[in-house]
UniProtKB/TrEMBL annotation:
Alphabetized CDD domains for the sequence: ACAD
Domain Acyl-CoA dehydrogenase/oxidase N-terminal positions: 7-117
Organism: Streptomyces kebangsaanensis
Domain Acyl-CoA oxidase/dehydrogenase middle per the UniProt entry, residue ranges: 122-217
InterPro entries according to UniProt: Acyl-CoA_dehydrogenase (IPR050741), Acyl-CoA_Oxase/DH_mid-dom (IPR006091), Acyl-CoA_Oxase/DH_mid-dom_sf (IPR046373), AcylCo_DH-like_C (IPR036250), AcylCo_DH/oxidase_C (IPR009075), AcylCoA_DH/ox_N (IPR013786), AcylCoA_DH/ox_N_sf (IPR037069), AcylCoA_DH/oxidase_NM_dom_sf (IPR009100)
Protein name: Acyl-CoA dehydrogenase family protein
GO molecular function: oxidoreductase activity
Flavoprotein is among the record's keywords: yes
Domain of life: Bacteria
Domain Acyl-CoA dehydrogenase/oxidase C-terminal: 241-383
UniProt lineage: Bacteria, Bacillati, Actinomycetota, Actinomycetes, Kitasatosporales
Length: 396
């Protein structure tokens, strides 16, 4: 028996998801996007097989695993050319936040649907005037009797058109100090005062991005994740907002790493297949080291990024939120960079064909860059490591 980093269960999950991914493949996703549709067939089948909710608790219909397993699902679908970006948002961020901090009622209402894919939740934190500086968000909830009134703007929110609710990060005023503190609200997209506008993106992806305007959106008390301050669970709701937010961010980063590694592997595989066959001198172009070495480097970078992603997922699943924070940031950085380089090199390896529709690689160049900027940019991760890991002073 050879030593291995992954358990037999993980390997079996990887193989099973890879087989599902191969049955759909890149062509399926390209066709779906061209038709202006969403990959509902793949989403439904993956949900039925239990892959979309592997990380969610068993008692609410999930697989009882962790972010390790969900990352395997996303990586393998991506490697097959059909990543489902909403996996990052719906079960990983929103599912995690609700499973860890939701009231019993919120868990029963949302988790079974998020787990089998019949319900989808989007996640909105980014604001036009705050961007990377999430301390500056101004979406604010104020009390109106037992209800909340939520007002603000969000931008680049993925999948709102597919979502049964959007988990919106806002702020409420601390009754004692008057300071604004973060809070998470479950907002139905058909609520009065909630408007969405699609943003035209240069991306060939199944998920659309939206700008949201919330104008005094009236929400019942139980729209607040964890319930209000008077809730039986006491520590939930308004006081727990920051904790809830951070709980969702580590899975988000691990999953973005999985998205990036899957896409990078897909591009690299296409390039290697091509480089083995394409011959314009005496040997296939893959025999030229100028072609072979960058592909080998891309492979090494993706493998290294995966190791860090596995570390981050392992720490997170073991309950070490702080350790997972550093590793998840590093994994997302490494994976984003590895993905951008792998896709760039793959496009280059195919020469002119790298830019054709038929080979479908050029469209990945913009998609790959998403992993460098979202959900947290390369520079903000370098800032985090500079300050948190190295103890260097801040410039901002
Ligand atoms: C396809 C896509 C999907 C997305 N989906 C979602 C979603 O579902 N939900 C959601 O809430 N958000 C989503 N986002 C938003 C994403 O998280 C933001 O785009 C990202 O956080 C960066 O914010 P920004 O675009 O405002 O850039 P800015 O904050 O304006 O940054 C612009 C540039 O300045 C750099 N920069 C900023 N501050 C510093 C600093 N202190 N030091 C050094 N450099 C700095 C950044 O690294 C970046 O390169 C999505 C974005 C994209 C592109």
């Amino acid at each position: 028996m050879s030593a291995t980093l992954e358990t037999d269960e993980h390997k079996a999950l990887r193989a099973a998801v890879a087989a599902l991914g191969r049955r759909y493949g890149r062509e399926y996703l390209t066709r779906t996007v061209a038709e202006g549709r969403r990959p509902v067939e793949l989403w439904a089948e993956a949900g039925k097989l239990g892959y979309l909710g592997v990380n969610l608790p068993e008692e609410y219909g999930g697989g009882g695993g962790g972010i390790t397993e969900l990352a395997i699902v996303l990586e393998e679908l991506g490697a097959a050319g059909c990543p489902l970006m909403m996996l990052v948002v719906s079960p990983a961020i929103c599912g995690t936040v609700i499973a860890r901090f939701g009231t019993e009622e919120q868990k029963r209402t949302w988790l079974p649907g998020l787990a089998d894919g019949t319900r989808i939740m989007a996640f909105g934190i980014t604001e036009p005037d705050a961007g990377s500086n999430s301390h500056r968000i101004t979406t604010t909830a104020r009390r109106d009797g037992a209800d909340w009134l939520l007002t603000g703007r969000k931008v680049f929110i993925s999948g709102v058109d597919t979502a049964d609710a959007v988990l919106i990060v806002g702020r409420t005023e601390d009754a004692r100090t008057g300071r604004l503190k973060p809070c998470l609200f479950i907002v139905p997209p058909d609520a009065e005062g909630f408007q969405r506008r699609p943003i035209e993106m240069e991306l060939s992806a199944a998920e659309k991005q939206f700008e949201l305007v919330l104008d005094d959106v009236r929400l019942p008390a139980d729209a607040l994740v964890g319930g209000g301050p008077s809730h039986a669970f006491g520590s939930g709701g308004e006081d727990a907002g920051l904790l809830q937010l951070f709980a969702g961010l580590n899975p988000e980063r691990v999953m973005t790493a999985a998205f990036a590694i899957g896409m990078g592997r897909h591009a690299l595989t296409r390039a290697v297949e091509y480089a083995r066959e394409r011959t314009v001198w005496k040997t296939p172009i893959g025999a030229h080291q100028a072609i072979a070495h960058p592909l080998a480097q891309a492979h090494i970078d993706l493998e290294l990024a995966r190791l860090m992603m596995q570390k981050a997922a392992h720490l997170y699943d073991a309950g070490d939120d702080v350790g997972a924070g550093e590793a998840a940031n590093m994994a997302k950085y490494a994976a984003g960079e590895a993905c951008v380089r792998a896709v760039d090199q793959a496009v280059h390896t195919l020469g002119g064909n790298g830019l054709t529709r038929e080979f479908g690689l050029a469209s990945l160049t913009t998609a790959a860059r998403v992993t460098r900027i979202a959900p947290v940019s390369r520079e903000m991760i370098l800032n985090y490591v500079s300050h948190q890991s190295l103890g260097l002073p801040k410039s901002y």
